[in-house]
Amino acid sequence: MASIKIKVAGEGLVAPAHRLADPGPTSGSSIIYEIEDVPEGVSADQVVAAFKKFAAPTDRFEIAFSELPA
Q1: CA 41 → CA 4, 50, 53, 60, 63, distances in Å?
Q2: What angle do CA 69, 62, 38 make, to 5 degrees?
Q3: CA-based Rg of the chain, rounded to a whole angstrom?
Q4: If you average pLDDT over residues 43-58, what whole number do you get?
Q5: What is the mean pLDDT of residues 20-35?
Q6: Would you state the pLDDT for residue 12?
Q7: What is the 3-state secondary structure (H, E, C) of the chain?
Q8: With the C-alpha atoms ordered 26, 29, 14, 63, is the resulting torsion angle positive or negative?
Q9: Are 29 and 10 in contact (CB under 8 A)?
Q10: Distance, CA of 1 to CA of 48 (rounded, Å)
Q11: Model confidence at 70, in pLDDT bands (50, 70, 90)?
Q12: Cβ distance 32 to 22 under 8 Å?
């Protein structure tokens, strides 16, 4: 199982984040989320697409892949 980091920009853009980015708010208006337990064979683009349908919490920044909508 892998983990993929997602960056949600203040204006709403959702994109893969750098693998070394720390989860949580950035110095700007972005938030980094770490999606954990991503199954083998699932691409970062697939995780981003699923994350766009997800109401991301503002109080925690590590999210299990199983929490994302299918």
Answers
A1: 12, 15, 20, 26, 18
A2: 55
A3: 11
A4: 93
A5: 94
A6: 87
A7: CEEEEEEECCCCCEEECCCCCCCEECCCCCEEEEEEEECCCCCHHHHHHHHHCCCCCCCCCEEEHHHCCC
A8: positive
A9: yes
A10: 17
A11: confident
A12: yes
Binned at pLDDT 50, 70 and 90, residue 58 comes out as: confident
- In single-letter form, the type of residue at position 6 comes to I
pLDDT over threshold 90, residue 1? no
- Which of 29, 65, 27 is CA-nearest to residue 48? 65
pLDDT, position 38 = 96
